[in-house]
Design goal:
By secondary structure, the chain is α+β, with helices and mostly antiparallel strands. The protein is built from 35 helices and 31 strands. The strands form 8 sheets. An 8-stranded mixed sheet has the order 23-22-21-20-26-25-24-27, with helices on both faces. It has a 7-stranded mixed sheet with strand order 1-2-16-3-12-6-7, with helices on both faces. Strands 28-29-31-30 form a 4-stranded mixed sheet, with no helix packed on it. The longest helix has about 80 residues, at about 685-760. It is elongated, with a radius of gyration of 66 Å. The protein starts with a helix and ends in a 5-residue tail after the last strand. Residues about 1-5 have low confidence and may be disordered. Bound molecules: adenosine-5'-diphosphate and magnesium ion.
Length: about 1050
């Protein structure tokens, strides 16, 4: 597949430079014809692309084709418009220079198609982000809209551009399209009101009528029939087979939305389109008094509605004109012809300005708005696309053809300047041996048209402005007077013989670089002044239609200054265009039309030869063959390729020319491949440069790696230093802070210590500045000690030593604290415990510090009774009757004589105590009779109850021993109310035996309890010593 493709591609030569017989026009055309026959429409002359219109779809514009051309060197692959696009794009990216692609050729040669292909190529292959895809879509969609409003079917081309277009596409530093700008040139407005036979008005009218929805049309007052509109049928061909107005309408409507038109704006635009059609159908007739009047009321009504102006005012403005005579304004009626002219002028003005507005609106939506990018403008580059109306010749040629052809003269001039002239001049300037190539310089024709004072446009302007009755004929005469004798200007009068026949009386002929054209002089003056009556302007200025109010300004009506004529405006805008193009690096696409019948596969040799000739392709080829394909200034060349030679890398120190010589020697350039000029190197073949480029491409990764490594190293080092510095700063700040804090603390501490010492020295003085801190601190610490460590219980008698100043307060506090604790303690006490405590208090009153066993008894609780009720003998209880036993305890009773020990129960009631043995009540001791109770001071359990012996009822003193002596004595003393009658004797107790007789118990301390009879009949009790007092 690939091989057949390339084999086919190799029909003839792909680059005319390779043509053997390169000076032969026949060989040139034969090469074109052979390739065209194989549907190979593209061929190069060096870097210039020659394109022959195939008039059919070739299927060479798919996405896959785009990919094939992307980033591939020019010469490696068959010629294509995409190769030019890609090459330009890469040149912009690598050299950072603005580029432009100039597409030239006569009407119908394929310029517009080529420009669209280029734009599509960029839209598809350039990197885009989401945001940028909007711009990309808008760039693409601006085409159908501008074509609808600015293109029309002509005899030469079914989609002929009737305006000039220069479009800038702006790319950011990554090569993504980020914005665009369109400049438009002179729209052929006359087409709005008139078309030659076989031609149409602008597409939009037919599209609206065919594709617009029914209710939309009714709203606009339109019928779906182009035949009904005078402005659409002048050329008698409202329908064209190659055009589908209905689907085109859909495309345009969608495109308007994509570009960002609001619904109201579209509505205003359609109102203007419809109003032009209504204007065309507005007819005039004669009134009763012979005045001109409008006979088609319905159209007028629609007009006032659609244009958003006052109906009566519009009617008056269409049939009258305002004159200023001697400073006074007067209104005068228009003749029938004048009224028709005024109407047509209005239609043209309204359409023409709406078109300009449309371009401005599209520009707004394409404008690159990002402020960040805008501030770094240097990083974005531009590719300009010039698609302007091509050279054209019709049966009748008028002012518009004159402008169009003049424009083509200028562009040819630019081409000559940039490719033929300057190139040859450059060789000479650089001292390269050179045989000059002859070519036709069309400057003479440009001068003929635009020269100051004596050029065509100057004469035209002069004639338009001069007082008197200037007319197209008087203008023709003036031309003959001034330009007569010029080799490129002929009129009927000036010509002779054969030529005379070919030029009509009202015509003049210009011999353009591309051929002779006869222009009809009729209408030149009117079209140049582009007159719209002032009162019509005034009416439109008041319009409610937003677009019209933006297009027609009040100042226009009030100003006295004459506006620039159409020709001068055009001349100036062309001069600006040339300036723009000169500032950019150009690439060329030269379009050729193979036949006049728009037929595919037909190659009209004569027609092609003519174009090859006037496009200067042969000269172009000769210069290219003899010359050098590329040239670079030494510094640029060295800068770009120095990395390919060790001698020049990384820097060349000597003369630039020597550096370049070293470099190319290293690269192995052969002598015939290049020449060294004064400031530039000239490279003869593209291939040489491409090979060098490839070498650079191959070297790039290594360079990138070196750059990356050193850059990363540098970055990391910088980062490290930054971090280190930051750490140091933080550290020193932190350390500083810490030290300052420490110093502050120390200072504070020293101050405190100093104060403390001083205070200590002065502590006995009255309160004074020297000791106040100390005293306060003392007080404070005393109070804090109390707070932190208060006495834990009522028994805890610890209390910190107060400073002298707080002695009194301390006492108060201590008391309060005790009271508090006691109150709290008392509140907590239960009744039984109270009773217990009362008893314990009594015990302490009696025994504390008196009896050795007392301390041990303190923690042992007193009980209600040591004997349970079961242990009581029932008989005894009955005997006691009402006297309830309140306490019972087992005791040992010692006989008064012989000291025999007998077990007994001692029972206490509320008024007496009894001793019980078994069921027998042995002895009753009334409390009233109880004289006293004696116990020893030792640990023994002996007690003696003293009762009066005279009392017969009562037996004598009782000697008892019991384990709970403290409890028993306490209870007994309490019940008998004999607390004061308890005697505690140190070593002996005397007791009455009977009738005045006494016995003695002796007490001694010993290792264990022992009861024995002692000397003198005493009872000897040895009590164990517990803790010596
Ligand atoms: N590359 C092409 N492939 C197919 N048809 C083409 C091509 N170039 C031009 N044409 C045909 O020729 C017609 C005229 O081309 P256009 O670009 O409008 O001419 P110009 O702008 O030069 O007047 C187009 O409508 C299209 O039908
Ligand atoms: Mg075109």
């Amino acid at each position: 597949m690939e091989s057949t493709l390339t084999a086919r591609d190799r029909v003839g030569v792909q680059d005319f430079v390779l043509l053997e017989n390169y000076t032969s026009e026949a060989a040139f055309i034969e090469n074109l014809r052979r390739r065209f026959g194989e549907k190979l429409i593209y061929t190069y002359i060096g870097s210039v692309l020659v394109s022959v219109n195939p008039y059919k779809d070739l299927e060479i514009y798919s996405k896959a084709h785009m990919e094939r051309y992307r980033g591939v060197s020019f010469y490696e692959i068959s010629p294509h418009i995409y190769a030019v696009s890609d090459n330009t794009y890469r040149a912009m990216r690598t050299e950072r220079r603005d580029q432009c692609i100039l597409i030239s050729g006569e009407s119908g040669a394929g310029k517009t198609e080529a420009s669209k292909k280029i734009l599509q190529y960029y839209a598809t292959t350039c990197p885009v982000t989401d945001h940028m895809s909007t711009i990309r879509d808008r760039l693409l969609q601006s085409n159908p809209v501008l074509e609808a409003f600015g293109n029309a079917k002509t005899l030469r081309n079914d989609n002929s551009s009737r305006f000039g277009k220069y479009m800038d596409v702006q790319f950011d530093f990554r090569g993504a399209p980020i914005g665009g700008h369109i400049l438009n040139y002179l729209l052929e407005k006359s087409r709005v009101v008139h078309q030659n036979h076989g031609e149409r008005n602008f597409h939009i009218f037919y599209q609206l009528l065919e594709g617009g929805e029914q209710d939309q049309l009714s709203k606009l007052g339109l019928e779906r029939n182009a035949q009904k509109y005078h402005y659409l049928v002048k050329g008698c061909c409202p329908r064209v087979s190659s055009i589908n107005d209905k689907s085109d309408w859909k495309t345009v409507r969608k495109a308007l939305t994509v570009i960002g038109f609001h619904e109201e704006e579209v509505e205003d635009l359609l109102n203007i389109i419809a109003s032009v059609l209504h204007l065309g159908n507005t007819q005039f007739g004669e009134g009763e008094d012979g005045e001109t009047q409008i006979t088609t009321e319905s159209h007028l009504t629609y007009l006032s509605k659609l244009l958003g102006v006052d109906g009566p005012a519009l009617r008056e403005a269409l049939t009258h004109k305002k004159l200023t005579a001697k400073g006074e304004e007067m209104i005068g009626p228009l003749s029938f012809e004048q009224a028709v002219a005024a109407r047509d002028a209005l239609a043209k003005a309204v359409y023409g300005r709406a078109f300009t507005w449309l371009v401005a609106k599209i520009n707004q939506s394409l404008a690159f708005k990002d402020e960040v990018y805008n501030s770094s403008k240097g990083s974005s580059s531009v590719i300009g696309l010039l698609d302007i109306y091509g050279f054209e010749v019709f049966q009748h040629n008028s002012f518009e053809q004159f402008c169009i052809n003049y424009c083509n003269e200028k562009l040819q001039q630019l081409f000559i300047k940039l490719t033929l002239k300057s190139e040859q001049e450059e060789y000479e300037a650089e001292g390269i041996t050179w045989e000059p190539v002859k070519y036709f310089d069309n400057k003479i024709i440009c001068d003929l048209v635009e020269e100051k004072h004596k050029g065509f446009i100057s004469i035209l302007d002069e004639e338009c402005l001069r007082p008197g009755e200037p007319s197209d004929i008087s203008f023709l005469e003036k031309l003959e007077d001034t330009l007569g004798g010029h080799a490129h200007f002929v009129t009927h009068k000036l010509a002779n013989g054969k030529t005379r026949k070919a030029v009509g009386r009202e015509e003049f002929r210009l011999i353009h670089y591309a051929g002779e054209v006869n222009y009809t002089v009729n209408g030149f003056l009117d079209k140049n002044t582009d007159l719209l009556y002032r009162n019509l302007k005034e009416v439109i200025c008041q319009s409610d239609n937003q677009i019209l109010s933006q297009c027609f300004h009040r100042e226009e009506v009030t100003t006295q200054k004459r506006p620039e004529t159409a020709a001068t405006q055009f001349k100036n805008s062309l001069a600006k265009l040339i300036e723009i193009l000169m500032s950019k690096e150009p690439s060329y696409v030269r379009c050729i039309k193979p036949n006049d019948a728009k037929q595919s596969g037909r190659f009209d040799e004569a027609l092609v030869r003519h174009q090859v000739k006037y496009l200067g392709l042969m000269e172009n080829l000769r210069v290219r063959r003899a010359g050098f394909a590329y040239r670079r200034r030494y510094e640029a060349f060295l800068q770009r390729y120095k990395s390919l030679c060790p001698g020049t890398w990384p820097n060349w120190q000597g003369r630039l020319a020597d550096g370049v010589a070293t470099l190319v020697q290293h690269l192995g350039y052969k002598a015939e491949e290049y020449k060294l000029g004064k400031t530039k190197i000239f490279i003869r073949f593209p291939k040489t440069l491409f090979t060098t480029e490839d070498a650079l491409e191959a070297r790039r990764p290594a360079l990138a790696l070196t750059l990356q490594t050193s850059w990363r190293g540098y970055r990391e080092r910088a980062k490290y230093h930054r971090i280190r510095n930051a750490v140091l700063v933080i550290q020193s700040a932190w350390r500083g802070m810490k030290s300052r804090r420490k110093a502050r603390r120390r200072r504070h501490a020293a101050e405190i210590i100093r104060k403390f010492i001083k205070g200590f020295i002065y502590r006995h003085y009255e309160r004074c500045p020297e000791n106040e801190y100390f005293l306060d601190h003392q007080r404070f610490s005393f109070l804090m000690t109390l707070v932190r460590n208060p006495p834990k219980s009522v028994l805890d008698k610890s209390w910190p030593v107060p400073p002298p100043s707080l002695t009194e307060a301390s006492e108060h506090l201590c008391r309060l604290c005790m009271q508090n604790m006691m109150r709290a303690y008392c509140r907590r006490i239960q009744p039984e415990w109270k009773k217990q405590m009362e008893q314990k208090v009594v015990a302490s009153q009696i025994f504390q510090d008196q009896k050795d066993s007392y301390p041990q008894s303190v923690p042992k609780l007193f009980v209600a009774s040591r004997l349970d009720s079961e242990e009581f003998n029932l008989k005894v209880i009955q005997t006691l009757g009402n006297d309830k036993v309140k306490y019972g305890v087992a005791v040992t009773k010692y006989d008064r004589r012989g000291y025999k020990a007998r077990p007994r129960q001692l029972l206490l009631t509320s008024s007496f105590a009894v001793l019980v043995a078994e069921a027998k009540l042995k002895q009753r001791i009334d409390y009233t009779a109880l004289r006293s109770i004696s116990v020893s001071s030792l640990t023994d359990g002996f007690m003696v109850l003293h009762v009066p012996s005279e009392d017969n009822k009562q037996k004598s003193d009782v000697v008892l021993q019991c384990d709970h002596v403290i409890e028993v004595v306490t209870k007994l003393a309490t019940m008998a109310d004999k607390k004061n009658k308890v005697n505690i004797s140190q070593d002996s107790i005397k007791f009455a035996v009977a009738r005045g007789k006494e016995a003695v118990i002796d007490f001694t301390s010993g290792p264990e309890l022992k009861v024995a009879k002692g000397k003198k009949g005493h009872l000897l009790v040895t009590a164990p010593q517990l803790n010596p007092r």
